Amino acid sequence: MEIVLATRNKKKVEEIRRILREEEMTLLTLDSFPSCPEVEEDADSFEGNARRKALAVAQCTGKAAAADDSGLEVDALGGAPGVLSARYAGAGADDGANRGKLLRALEPVPAEKRGARFVCCIVLAFPGGECVSFSGTVEGTIGREEKGGKGFGYDPLFYPAGHSRTFAEMEPEEKDALSHRKRALEKLGAYFRGSAAG
Q1: Exposure class string for 152-178: b at 16+ Cβ within 10 A, else e
Q2: 137 class by beta-carbon count within 10 Å (0-12 exposed, 13-18 middle, 19+ buried)
Q3: Torsion sign, CA atoms 109, 168, 172, 66
Q4: Active-site positions?
């Protein structure tokens, strides 16, 4: 089965390809469908944003489409940045600006109250409008400074529970084994294996 990945984020595509290994499906990217519109991510939940993107791409391409929305929830900030993770420091902000704003917001917060989690919701949409969703989370804490040069987004600040290195200090395969996206993608893969068996 062919599935269009409803993202133009090349690092995210690489990560999804590494984790899924395309055993049950052929993954296509939006590079093959330049006419697909940009979808505004203004829903109030990760699932809402993922559903909006997946449905738009499924309708544009006439193929099944998978979209994810993911982000960081910080306990001391009431769950922020949440769905605004990619634009926490404002529209057009880059990863560095977002991390900088987060560090400033958490400056007075002691280590024991810096709990956080990465959340990922993946929605698989079909051209007829049917949707199935899968989610994954990974708990951890936010450090006081950036560490590591791998990964993207908030990875240089996030220490997964039980680990003394940030996601950005880990090799890609090591991060994949722990990540929120991996947990959601495993559920997507299990769905396809179940569909194939049925």
Answers
A1: ebbbbbbbbeeeeebbbbbebeebeeb
A2: middle
A3: positive
A4: 69
Domain boundaries 2-197, corresponding CATH code: 3.90.950.10
Please name every residue paired with 5 in a beta bridge, in sequence order, or none if there are none.
Answer: 29, 66
How many residues are there in the chain? 198
Going from N- to C-terminal start, the domains of the chain cover 2-197
Taking the C-alpha atoms of residue 35 and residue 85, their distance in angstroms, rounded to an integer, is: 27
pTM of the model: 0.88
Cα separation, 58 vs 2, in Å, equals: 11
**Closest-CA residue to 19 (of 197, 183, 130, 156):** 183
CB 113 within 8 A of CB 37: no
123 and 187 Cβ atoms separated by less than 8 Å: no
Mean pLDDT to the nearest integer, 136-157: 95
Question: How far from the centroid of its chain's Cα atoms is residue 97's Cα?
Answer: 18
Burial of 39 (0-12, 13-18, 19+ CB in 10 A): middle
Is residue 197 pLDDT above 70, yes or no?
A: no
- Over residues 49-104, the pLDDT tens digits come to 999 999 999 999 999 999 999 999 999 999 999 999 999 999 889 999 999 999 99
CA separation, residue 15 to residues 20, 135, 172, 173 (Å): 9, 16, 8, 9
